[in-house]
Amino acid sequence: MSFELILFYLFATVLTVAALGVITVKNSVHAALLLVLTFFTAAALWLLLQAEFLAIALVLVYVGAVMVLFLFVVMMLDIKVEPLREGFVRYLPIGAIVAVVMLVEMLGLIGLKTMSAQALPADPAGASNTAWLGKALFTQFLLPFEVAAVILTVALIAAVMLTLRRRVGVKSQDPAKQVAVKASERVRIVKMESASKGGTP
Amino acid sequence: MLSNFFHSWIHDPLIAHAGTFGLVVWLVLCILAIAVPVILTVALYVWWERKVLGWMHVRMGPNSVGPAGLAQTFADVFKLLLKEYFMPQAASKFLFVVAPLIALVPAFAAWAVVPFDDKVVLADVNAGLLYLLAMTSLGVYGIILAGWSSNSKYAMLGAMRSAAQVVSYEIAMGMALVGVLICAGSLNLSDIVRAQGGNWGIFNGFWLPLFPLFLVYFISGVAETNRAPFDVAEGESEIVAGFHVEYSGAPFAVFFLTEYANMILISFLASVLFLGGWNSIFPVSWGFLGAPGWWWLFVKAFFFAFFYLWFRAAFPRYRYDQIMRLGWKVFVPITIVWVLVAGCLVYFDIVGPGKV
Amino acid sequence: MSFSIQDLQLILPEAFLLFAICAVIAVDLVIKPAQRDATHWLSIGVVVATLLLVIIDRSADARGFSGMFVHDAVARLLKVFILLVTIAVFVYARTYLKDRKLFVGEFHMLVLFAVLGMMLLVSAGSLVMIYVGLELLTLSSYALVALNRDSPLSSEAAMKYFVLGALASGILLYGMSMIYGATGTLDLQKIHAVASLAAGSSHQTLLAFGLVFLVAGIGFKFGAAPFHMWLPDVYQGSPTAVTTFIGSAPKIAAFGMAWRLLDGALGGLHPHWGEMLAVLAVLSLAIGNVVAIAQTNLKRMLAYSTISHVGFLLLGLANGTPSGYAAAMFYAIAYAIMSAAAFGSIQLLARAGFEAEEIDDFKGLNQRNPWYAFVVLLVMASLAGIPPLFGFFAKLLVLKAALDAGMLWLAIVAIVFAIVGAFYYLRVIKVMYFDPPETKDTLALPQDIPLRWVLSINGAALLFLGLFFGPLLSWCYRAMGAG
């Protein structure tokens, strides 16, 4: 067994156990953390396949940003997990059936691929897969890539529309005004005659 | 020079005598060769910080333990390591212990791709810049886990502030790096440094064409490391010590180490990405002064590290909403516009690998 | 591989629309809330200009962006009607939204983005484009449903729509990935070639697996039974202006998507999906028509009526011949126009603080405003499929195509349920003409002149297109390449 294969089995085991943990642990924060572990091991598996760009992007986007916000929300909301888990046993058979169907389909696909296996053509220029991905995204997949950007814009507009509330009576500062303030607006210098000799007791 | 020496004297005999095992030993030695100096530098940096702050406050700073107070930090380290290690009763035990380590690991792992000199780098990966971004974004886990597992309101508040802040500034930071990689045409850090080589010394660096990005990067770096004036995650005046309020002894020391290691890392990265890394600040034609070498990187990094301390002494702490405003409404738009400018600069051949 | 200037020419209407939306956003940002009408008219102008660009474009059929974008007669025809219906949606919405303080720029932007999504969807040449086009459409729709964010009903509807919509997208995506796995390409044309070759091989089985998911996803997006659960709640819960939109134009786009996927990519598997669609069609016809009878809320009733109409539409698709597709396309267009008029008339009757969405609100409408009652009469009769209105001919064509394809039983089932369905439409007409009004005041039409005119034109179009359906029909037949 080669070193790579050992690593593969190691990561695959961790991934599966962590993924199972996500849906079985009681504490929602622990579940989110196990999901982080799942993503991380998936990235490691991709690294084994030499898809370094995808692997790092997975860590950067999902682990570094999405899951942090996820944890943020889970920690803030203090979700009671028990009511959510009530139907777990009841729906288990349905879930199991769906999982088995999906497994069979995927195995079928893998079987099909091994029957008609042909290695991907090696990149003639020998460029790194980052460069290759970039080229594919901006030539062949230019249109969907741009549309994806539009989708994100829609998400932004929708988020603003649904959450922005202009409350009245809120006091806020205008930094530009604070910076532009002049001494004469804050301090008033009053000229006073000095007290004359013997004027005060 | 440096790398050749180590290669012929350590690497080659190891491989020749011990095969795969030798390779592992070599890698461990390389990692130690980076990690141990980083830890020592942190100790000296803490001493330097206290000195600088002292001078800015017109006082002495540490001056009793060792020559010029140099052993002060080591004394503090031993104190922390020997102190009682206390865990709150209602804490989430496992996460409470693991959190400092989770914070520490990415802070050290990021050093793997930092090039100290031409070919002196632990892992010369193609997607180095992305790897760095990924590692710096992982650091926040240690903080939010520490805050949550402590089961304390102050710690929780600090963690939440930190999470929001780090995620926000990561965007500005990432966009600033996009400008760099457009100009260098590569994600590899050594290639980025090479792209900044040339006859003009320091003026070959990307800080000149990408000046706004350079500023945004460094300020975002300060925010990412939760340092003053962006240290609301600790915020002594409001939430005592923020996320590590319940930590004591060795785990606290680990957090302390992480913070300073991250600061040094950001200083190195700013030098590598914007000031030309190991390239001399003088034109190459100036002979001895113009020769590239690792010492130039260290000089540049020291310059940024000093800025960290200066900021801490000079600026009052930002309020939380001001931090968010600065990140989202100022930095992100600036970087987006300047990425566009960078694209134009490269397209019209004004900046780029090998250009003046 | 790389893109050229010809690609940009192909996509000119969409590109124009995108830049125009950005301009609308910028304008909306700087104007004061009192000047919101500017955004409104600008949006309508943008849609009209896009429509003109689509119409004047006489270039030959082509594929651009490495096969991602298809420019053909079907796409052009569908786009024309999507844009036309959208203009009506905008005009109907103005007074209604103003009365409810919902007249915000975001409404216009999201509708425009959804229109962009629909245009890309009907022109999709690859699975990726189908997915992103669909997401652009549905994401905008989720947000639109939640437009009235202070209303619990609206929020609940948006939540349901979002969760089920996301599930549907997931199912669709899973089906797509299966098909990609089996064929090794995302391009619809190439999938078609592989899928036609694969008859009897192991590819076929896998493709059929993927197909099940794909059809389920399409069923969800159409709102066909048994995937219709979200539809009544969403139609009832969202503001009527939004219901008008999501109930009309997206049906045209959904037809485009289904046609591209089922015929364009998996035409070789027609024996499989034809049966699945037939089952969906029968279920939709049955559930839609029967449950609609029990409704007292007009919006809810129209939602169930949508389900039944989707059944008819799927019947046309199911028979897998060009004339069947043409009939289904004709039906989709007819339904979108009728549905816009139906929801538009609810908005015409609605006032500030009064939704006019119960059937009882229409009692004695004839005595209060005869012309308005007549428009509603036209709409309801057309939806019921009474000759000589538009809806009748749409149904007739679908039934004829089904009979030609030898689907006698399906046609009989469809006729039976169409007759059952006629009952509840006629009930609305009965309520308007024969029940005494609850108040004696005459009903003043709203001050919004464009609304009155466009609604009248929309109602008259149902009659006109019913009498002179020839040109549209031959356009549909030509686009589909049917004799």
Short key terms for the protein model shown above:
heterotrimer; A: 201 residues; mainly alpha; Four Helix Bundle (Hemerythrin (Met), subunit A); 2 domains; 0% strand; elongated; C: 483 residues; two-stranded antiparallel sheet; 21 helices; 2 strands
Task: Describe what you observe in this structure.
The complex is a heterotrimer of chains A (201), B (356) and C (483). Helix content of chain A is 71%, strand content 0%. By secondary structure, chain A is mainly alpha-helical. Chain B starts with a helix and ends in a 9-residue tail after the last helix. In chain B, 45% of the residues are buried. With 483 residues, chain C is mostly helical. Chain C has helices spanning 5-10, 12-30, 37-56, 73-99, 105-122, 127-145, 152-183, 188-197, 202-222, 230-237, 240-247, 249-265, 270-293, 298-318, 322-349, 365-368, 370-384, 390-404, 408-434, 449-467, 470-480, and strands spanning 62-64, 69-71. The model of chain C has no long low-confidence stretch (mean pLDDT 87). At the A-C interface, α5 and α7 of A face α5, α6, α7 and α9 of C.
CATH class of the largest domain in chain A: Mainly Alpha
Over all CA atoms, what is the radius of gyration of chain C?
21 Å
- Report the uncertain regions of chain A: none
Number of DSSP helical runs of chain A: 9
Q: What summary fits the major beta sheet of chain C?
A: 2 strands, antiparallel
- Beta-strand residue percentage of chain A: under 5%
CATH level-3 fold name of the largest domain in chain A:
Four Helix Bundle (Hemerythrin (Met), subunit A)
For the largest interface, the chains and their residue counts are: A-C, 26 and 40 residues
**Structural class by secondary-structure content of chain C:** mainly alpha
Number of domains of chain A: 2
- Helicity range of chain C: over 70%
**Succession of helices and strands of chain A:** HHHHHHHHH
Query: How many angstroms does the end-to-end distance of chain C come to?
Result: 36 Å
Name the CATH superfamily assignment of the largest domain in chain A: NADH-ubiquinone/plastoquinone oxidoreductase chain 6, subunit NuoJ
As residue ranges, the low-confidence spans of chain C are none
Shape of chain C: globular
Mean pLDDT, all residues of chain A: 81
Q: What integer value in Å does the Rg of chain A equal? A: 30 Å
- Computed structural class of chain A: mainly alpha
Number of helical segments with 4 or more residues of chain C: 21
What does the average pLDDT of chain C come to? Answer: 87
